[in-house]
Structure formats: C-alpha cells, structure tokens
Amino acid sequence: DGDVGVDAAAPAFIDGIDTRLVHAFATLLARAAENEVPIVVSVRRDGPRVVVELRAADTLPPRRPREARPSASPVARSVVRHIIGAHGGHLEHEPAAGAGVLARVTFPAS
What we know:
Blueprint (H helix, E strand, L loop, with lengths): L3 E5 L9 H15 L6 E8 L2 E8 L17 H13 L3 E6 L5 E8 L2
Parallel strand pairs: 1-2
Antiparallel strand pairs: 2-3, 3-5, 4-5
C-alpha cells in the first residue's frame, strides 16, 4: 500500500455533502495509488477557489510487482466528475513532469 502525505499550509473550506466528496476523493486517491508509490495531496486557497492537487510521485520504485489492473471505469470517472461538478468544482487530469499523474480539483471556497 502506498503512503499518503498532506500538504496544507492553512485550512480551506468548501460547502458540500461530505459523504459525496469523500467518495470522489477516495476514487481519485485509489486511481493515483495504482502505482503503489507515495501520494502527496496539496490543498491551498487561491483567491475565491480551493485547489486540491493529487500527485503520485514517481521517484520511488513500486513496492512489489503486481498484475495489471484496469483503471477506474468510465462510470466511476463519470460519478466523480458529477459529484465535483455538483459542488461547483472542476476536475483536470494532466501529466506532471517528474511527479506522476496529477489530478487537480478546484472548488468555490466557502
């Protein structure tokens, strides 16, 4: 199992249904953890928005070999996008040079 670190300089709050947000972030973390490397979650306030970034670091080798598994299903990805959108947020996935896959989620701050 990969380690998860959180980098948050100050509290950042959003309005929403906590169980749905937990589901969305658990799905994103599971996807990032597929490589079994440490994950860094950074949270910051950027003006009127809260920005959450998930990085799967690629600086360490995987902990153990394993069989290839399919990534999150299209339905799971759709549910995550729907939950984030219902909270006024936006989800982006983009390659992060030297830091694995990056998922960036932005929400209106409360």
